[in-house]
Amino acid sequence: MTGLVTLCNANDMIKVQPGSKTLEYDLAYENYGQTLLVTNACTHEEGLRALIIDPASTPAEIEDTVTRTRQATEHLDEQERARHLVATCYLYCLEGAKGEHAFALAKALKEAKSTASLRGFAVPTYIASSIRWASRQPATEP
Q: Is residue 135 exposed (0-12), middle (13-18) or buried (19+ Cβ within 10 Å)?
C-alpha cells in the first residue's frame, strides 16, 4: 500500500482512499441499525434483520458467526461491539452474492430517497470523500 500511496502522491489524477475492511463491512458498520441494508440477496435475511433490530439477539441461522464475533469483540464497549457484530454478520450473509446484493441495495436506496427510512443513513467517510474528489467538489469540514 505504501508504494501505491507514494505513486499517487506524485499524480494528482489518482487518489487512494482506503476503508477499514470492505465496502460492505464499512457500510454496515456505519449503519448498523438500518434494516434497509438487508435485501433479498442476503442469505439468512430474516436472521440478519433481527440482529440489526436487536444486536443482543442471537438468530439461529447466524448463531456461529454471532458467537465468534461476540468473543472477538468482548473488549469493546456496547455500541462498538454492536457495530462490529452487525458488520461482520452482514458481510457473512453477502458471501457469493455481492453483485446481486449491490443492485438490490442500490434499488432500495433509490426507492427510499427522501423518506423516513433513509433518515440517519451514513455514507462511509472515505466514500463521500472519494465522490467529492472525483466530482471536483470542495472538501467538507470534519
A: exposed
